[in-house]
Design a protein that fits this description.
This protein starts with a strand and ends with a strand. The strands form 3 sheets. Strands 3, 5, 6, 7, 14 and 15 form a 6-stranded mixed sheet that branches. Strands 10-9-8-11-12-13 form a 6-stranded parallel sheet, sandwiched between helices. The chain contains 9 helices and 15 strands. 44% of the residues are buried. By secondary structure, it is an alpha/beta fold. Helix 2 (128-148) crosses helix 3 and helix 2 crosses helix 8 (281-296). The longest helix has 21 residues, at 128-148. The protein has 2 domains: 2-135 and 279-332, Quinone Oxidoreductase, Chain A, domain 1 (Alpha-Beta Complex); 153-271, 3-Layer(aba) Sandwich (Rossmann fold), CATH 3.40.50. Helix 6 links the parallel strand 12 (239-247) and strand 13. It is globular, with a radius of gyration of 20 Å. It has helices spanning 42-49, 128-148, 165-176, 207-214, 232-238, 259-263, 274-277, 281-296, 313-321, and strands at 2-7, 16-21, 30-39, 59-60, 65-72, 85-88, 99-103, 156-160, 180-185, 198-201, 220-225, 239-247, 268-271, 304-309, 328-332. This is Alcohol dehydrogenase, C-terminal,NAD(P)-binding domain,GroES-like,Polyketide synthase, enoylreductase. GO terms for molecular function: mRNA 3'-UTR AU-rich region binding; NADPH binding; quinone reductase (NADPH) activity. Keywords: NADP, Oxidoreductase.
Length: 333
Amino acid sequence: MVKAVQIRKTGGPEVLEFIDKNIDIPEGREVLIRHTAVGLNRYDTEHRKGTRRVKNLPAVLGMEAVGVIEGLGAKADECLKIGDRVGYCTALPGAYCEKRIVHQKYLIRIPDDISDEYLIRIPDDISDEVVASVLFKGMTAHYLINQSYKVKPGTFVLVHGANGGLGGIICQWIKDKKGMAIGSVSSDDKMLQSGCTHMINYNDKEAVDKIMEITKGNGVGVVYDPIGYATSKVSFESLGNFGIYVSYGQISGAAPLSFSLLSSRSLFATGTSIYHYKQNRFTLVLTAMEIFEMLRKKLLTAKINKKYQFDEIVQAHHDIENRKVSGLNIIKF
C-alpha cells in the first residue's frame, strides 16, 4: 500500500482526499518509481477543477515527478537499473503518490539507436527538487518559444503571468534567444523582472498604450497566455499585424474569439498541449538534455519558492487558489 491523493469529483481543494492505494508489480516495459519530489503545476489545479478534463474518476493528480527506480518489468530495457534517478512529465496524471508504476517510454532517456548508454541520468549537480520544479515547465516553455511561435532576435513578446514559475522560465528563455520579453502581471507589487526586458500590469488601463510605446507602435509578435478571459483584451489589442495569440491555459475562463477580431489585423490564435508537442521520444529526450544544459550554464535559474510536504498538498492547492504562492513550488517526500 502507498499513500496517494486523489479526486472523486472535480471542484475546489476540498475534493482532494488522502487514500491508501494498492500498487501492482511492474510488468512488461513498466517501471516502479519511488518519488522523491513532485512538481506543482497549473495543470494540477485545472484537472482538479475540471477545466482540463481527467480521463477517468476517481483519479490521482500530478503531472511531473522525480524519483528512484525500485522495480522493473520483465521487458524493461537493460540500461534501466534499480536505484537509477529518473524523471517524467508527459505520462498521464498520477504523480501525487509515494510510488507509482510508469511505462519506460515516459522516462527521460535516449532512444536505443543512439548509444548503449541511453539512459539520461539526471546530472548529479542538479537536485531532484530542481528537476521536479522545472521539467514540465521547461518542456512547455521550449515548445512555446521554438514551435508554437519561433522567437527570433529582436522579437517583442508579451508574456502573461510572468511572475509564475512557467512565466519566469519563458522570459529567461526569450532573453537567451535575444528576444524582448514584456512581462505581464496582475498588480504592481508583482512587477519583478523575471528576466523580462519590460514589465506591465495588465489591469492598468494604459497597459496597451505602454506596450505600443515599448514596441514603437508595432505591437508584439506573439502573446503567451495561461490566463484567458481576464487578459484577452490586452492580448489582442497588443498584437501587431499577423501576430499570434498562443493559449496554454484558461485560469480566468476562455478568451472570447471571433473571425472579425482575428481579421482586424490578420491575426492567428492557437491552443497548445505538451502531449502533442512532446509525444515523440526523440523530441522529449533532446528537450530534457537542453533544459539540463541551460540549468548547468545558468541560462535558466530555478529558485524554488516553497517546498510543501506530501501531507500539505491540500494547503498547497488553497495557496495557489488564493494566489499566496508564485514562482516554482514542489511537494517533497
